[in-house]
Write a structure and sequence with these properties.
Blueprint (H helix, E strand, L loop, with lengths): L5 E5 L7 H7 L8 E6 L1 H11 L4 E4 L13 E6 L16 H16 L5 E4 L4 H6 L7 H8 L6 E6 L2 E5 L9 H4 L2 H17 L7 E5 L14 H15 L3 E6 L1 H4 L2 H4 L4 E4 L2 H12 L4 E5 L5 E3 L17 H19 L3
Parallel strand pairs: 1-2, 1-5, 2-4, 3-4, 5-12, 7-10, 8-9, 8-10
Antiparallel strand pairs: 6-7, 6-11, 11-12
Length: 333
């Protein structure tokens, strides 16, 4: 691409550290043109609280995309219903959080932007507002009409995808099916090729049960579901292996020969990834018709407005989105 990618950044939960880390973008060299989506008054108030010398300029749909300027950020104003105080959640502001996502999707659909980067939202307060919500991944998938998407976190050379996402642990075994697992691996494979420019990616698949089921003595999901899917995809030439016991899968000897790991559930794979790269990792949604990346952390209400928020993950999310946009552009016929 000869021009800078155009990135939309949603501010997320206004009472959390989303405004803090978004404002910090003005103090760093950016890889792309950026528009923030959030409440302009809230951002200006937070900048004053933090003592950040940021100039926040309104941007409206139809305006030209801005050039990069030090200490300047453009904001598409999504007004909150109530004024916001750092660290104090208000369910009345939850609809505005989702409106910012909806507006970003509208702009992406008509080609006015290239990618979406999301600061963290607070799932609980959105549900307290009477809006069913399980997370960005599921919300964006439904909004884009996609039945199957995959959550991938990447950082410091490690990529971990999930076969299931935000489910109670008791619901995980029944959610792992042959068809679902096969679709997940195909989406992961396609993304590694298209978005990460890997010609023949190597994927390690974790087992669900301890010791990957111990030959059926510690569970049957491996023998009944995971192994048949792996064998079928291997017959097609996919470089996928497993199921590997999760307690030994994340070791240097195995990881040095892998481009990604597929974990069966959220807390099987992400604790390892976050121990390895917390604060630098990026959450990427695979299988969407848009490019979406996000931070690897939550709203951190206790840190909001204190000046202690660390924005490195958001910067890495911008870098990852820029790389994916460029890779997709290169792979166009």
């Amino acid at each position: 691409m000869n021009t800078l990618p155009r990135l939309l950044v949603t501010v997320g939960e206004p009472a959390g550290i989303g405004p803090d880390i978004c404002l910090q973008l003005a103090t760093h060299p950016l890889p792309a043109a950026v528009i923030l989506l959030g409440d302009l008054h809230c951002l200006r108030s937070r900048a004053m609280i933090l003592g950040l010398p940021v100039r926040l300029e309104p941007w409206q749909e139809g305006d030209p995309w801005p050039e990069l300027e030090p200490d300047v950020l453009r904001v598409l104003d999504i007004p909150l219903l109530h004024s916001c105080q750092p660290g104090h959640l208000d369910p009345a502001n939850a609809p505005a959080v989702l409106r910012s996502l909806d507006k970003a999707l509208d702009l992406l659909r008509v080609g006015m932007a290239d990618a979406l980067i999301t600061a963290p939202v607070h799932k609980g307060i959105i549900n307290d507002a009477g809006i069913p919500f399980t997370g960005h991944t599921e919300y964006l998938a439904a909004s884009c009409g996609q039945n199957e998407v995959v959550m991938l976190l990447a950082g410091r050379g490690l990529r971990v995808a999930l076969a299931t996402t935000h489910l109670p642990l008791a619901a995980v075994p029944s959610a792992i099916t042959r068809g679902g697992l096969e679709r997940t691996l195909r989406i992961l494979q396609a993304a590694l090729i298209q978005d990460f420019a890997l010609a023949a990616p190597r994927i390690l698949v974790a087992g669900l049960n301890p010791h990957a089921g111990e030959g059926g003595h510690l569970g049957h999901e491996e023998t009944d579901i995971i192994i048949p899917v792996i064998h079928a995809l291997q017959q097609e030439g996919m470089r996928v292996s497993g199921p590997w016991p999760a307690d030994t899968l994340f070791t240097p000897r195995l990881l040095e020969d892998a481009d990604a790991v597929l974990a069966m559930y959220h807390d099987q794979g992400l604790p390892v990834l976050k121990y390895h790269a917390f604060g630098e990792a990026v959450n990427i949604t695979l299988g969407l018709p848009i490019v979406r990346t996000s931070v690897d952390h939550g709203t951190a209400l206790d840190v909001a407005g204190t000046g202690r928020a660390q924005g490195e993950s958001l910067l890495h999310a911008l870098d990852a989105a820029t790389e994916i946009v460029r890779n997709r552009h290169m792979n166009r016929p």
